[in-house]
Structure formats: C-alpha cells, structure tokens
Amino acid sequence: MKMQESNCGFFDWIDPEMCQRSREIIPGLIRGRNVLEEQLRGQVEEARRLKKYLKISWVFFVLVVLFFKC
C-alpha cells in the first residue's frame, strides 16, 4: 500500500489490485447476502402481521368472555 499526500491535509490510500479468485468470489457472497436480507425482511413482515392478528384475537377473546359472563 502506498500513501499519497495532498495539500489539503487529507491522504488517499492506493490498494493493490485484488486477485482473480477474490473478484470471482465476492460478487457471489454479496448476492447470497442480499438473498438472506430479502428473506429476513419477509420474515419480519410476516412476524408483524402475525403479531397484529394475535392482538386482535386477544381483544376478541376478552370481548367474548365479558359478554358471555353476563
């Protein structure tokens, strides 16, 4: 790695080129990660939906118990 200085007090890094194998593997890893993130988003959305249905069922249950108790 070589560091170049500039007049503004900042510096730039010049990294060596990645090997061919890295350039082949990294895009596949990123695609796999994107697939997993999409699946996670779907599961989070389903969990929210189920939580909403659970709350509604609790309210319904309480109403049924209160009305049939009288």
Give a quick summary of the entry:
The protein has about 70 residues and is mainly alpha-helical. It is built from 1 helix and 2 strands. It has one helix spanning about 20-70, and strands at about 1-5, 10-15.
Helix content: over 70%
Count helical runs: 1
* Rg from Cα: 28 Å
The span between the termini is 81 Å
Describe the main β-sheet briefly. 2 strands, antiparallel
Residue stretches low in confidence (pLDDT < 50, at least 5 long) are none
Order of helical and strand elements: EEH
User: Total strand count, please?
Assistant: 2
User: What is the total number of structural domains?
Assistant: 1
Query: Outline, from the CA principal axes?
Result: elongated
Judged by helices, strands and strand pairing, the structural class is mainly alpha
Tell me the fraction of residues in β-strands, as a range. Answer: 5-15%
Average pLDDT value?
A: 89
State the strand order across the main sheet.
Answer: 1-2
Task: Give an account of the 3D structure.
- By secondary structure, this protein is mainly α.
- The chain is 71% helix and 11% strand.
- The chain has one helix at 20-69, and strands spanning 2-5, 11-14.
- The longest helix has 50 residues, at 20-69.
- The protein is elongated.
- It starts with a strand and ends with a helix.
Give the SSE map.
Elements: E1 2-5, E2 11-14, H1 20-69
Antiparallel strand pairs: 1-2
Keywords:
two-stranded antiparallel ribbon, 70 residues, mainly alpha
